[in-house]
Design brief:
Elements lengths: L1 E7 L2 E6 L9 E10 L2 H9 L11 E2 L3 E9 L11 E4 L2 E2 L5 H4 L10 E2 L11 E5 L3 E3 L12 H14 L6 E5 L3 H12 L3 E6 L2 H9 L4 E4 L5 H8 L5 E6 L6 H8 E9 L12 H4 L4 E4 L7 H10 L9 E6 L3 H9 L8 E5 L2
Parallel strand pairs: 11-12, 11-14, 12-13, 14-15, 15-16, 17-18
Antiparallel strand pairs: 1-2, 1-4, 3-5, 3-9, 3-18, 5-6, 6-10, 7-8
Helix pairs in contact: 3-4, 3-9
């Protein structure tokens, strides 16, 4: 079968590898679609951004769904033909953090597409315990978007948002668009922040309350005008750019909360007096914890998250580098998610 394999910085290869056989507790999936995340692009171009993701070579692809093609002898809850989403994060359940319910910080975490083979391939195997049956209401081509939705759900939980809070989201890419919709579903008033007019227009189309171009000289003043001169209660940064964490902290009101979600390939510098002097809380949010993906599927099924405009292109696996990764590296970044079909 064909699989996109990561060997290291600027070294990914589409190779022929054996079709995997499921272990007793696993199912083999025929991949329906997988999508390319900006984290995949950053890892390809700059190298691993987190120490625990440095294993190679491995098949790339952590946003993926498939149909069950074969099952191991111990699998009881799945049948051949079922459509399933790959819950890509596999915490160990035994370490200090897992025992305390902090599975996204698991010291021994494994993840599809990083430490374990992922879904930018024709087939993959995955434990039944981390496969979620999909409702018929979600089209095949949109199913990979469930994974970044789980990231958005996790970030929203980490934010501590309450109904009536004003929340700004900086970075209106795929994760940003999904995070804004999850926040709206939680009852927040949402301000979208981005450099791209196209992204801000889509944010307003999806029902956000206001949009601010982060490149405007008076961007902070616009946010203050929208918040009775106090700033946003919560700011969520999903862009992963060098300049965006300081913007997120500056937009947060004194005593408010900044949530950093974006993965950064380059280091950042910041005047920490901006935090100390205003008693702001800054927290990180990475990936998802148990229950986040199921919640995301529920929100999509209930129509509270709309995915239609986030599928920018569909490409075959044999064009994944040229039409996928290389396109996503272009400065204009004119895409949200590119879906990859194995055929």
């Amino acid at each position: 079968m064909k699989a996109l394999r990561y060997y290291g910085r600027q070294d990914m290869r589409l190779e022929d590898v054996p079709i995997p056989e499921p272990a007793d507790d696993e199912a083999r999936l025929g991949i329906m679609y997988a999508s390319i995340c900006q984290t995949d692009v950053e890892r390809w171009w700059h190298g691993p951004t987190m120490r625990r993701w440095q294993t190679e070579p491995k098949t790339v692809g952590h946003e993926t769904a498939g149909r069950v093609e074969a099952i191991g002898t111990d699998v009881r809850g799945l049948s051949v033909g079922d459509r399933v989403m790959v819950n890509n994060i596999r915490p160990c359940t035994e370490c200090y953090w897992c025992i305390r319910g902090l599975q996204s910080s698991c010291a021994n975490v494994n993840s599809a597409g990083f430490a374990l083979d992922g879904g930018l391939a024709e087939y993959m195997v995955w434990p039944e315990s981390h496969l979620i049956k999909l409702p018929d209401s979600i089209p095949d081509v949109q199913t990979p978007l469930i994974e970044p939705t789980s990231v958005a759900v996790h970030a929203t939980r980490r934010s501590g948002v309450k109904a009536g809070d004003t929340v700004a989201v900086i970075g209106c890419g795929t994760v940003g668009m999904l995070t804004m919709q999850v926040l709206r579903a939680a009852g927040a008033r949402v301000i979208a922040g981005d450099l791209r007019a196209q992204a801000l227009e889509l944010a307003l189309k999806l029902g956000m309350d206001a949009a601010v171009n982060t490149g405007d000289e008076d961007a902070l003043e616009q946010v203050l005008d929208l918040t009775d001169a106090v700033g946003a209660d919560i700011v969520v940064e999903t862009a992963g750019a060098v300049v965006t964490p300081p913007i997120a902290i500056n937009w947060t009101r004194p005593g408010g909360r900044t949530v950093l979600v974006g993965i950064h390939a380059a280091g950042n510098e910041f005047d920490f007096n901006e935090i100390v002097g205003t008693e702001k809380t800054v927290v990180g949010s990475v990936a998802a914890s148990p229950g986040d993906m199921e919640k995301g599927i529920q929100l999509i099924g209930d129509g509270k998250i709309v995915l239609d405009d986030l599928v920018s292109a569909v490409i075959p696996l044999d064009r994944v580098m040229e039409d996928g990764f290389e396109r996503m590296r272009r400065p204009e970044k004119d895409v949200f998610r590119i879906m990859v079909s194995p055929n």
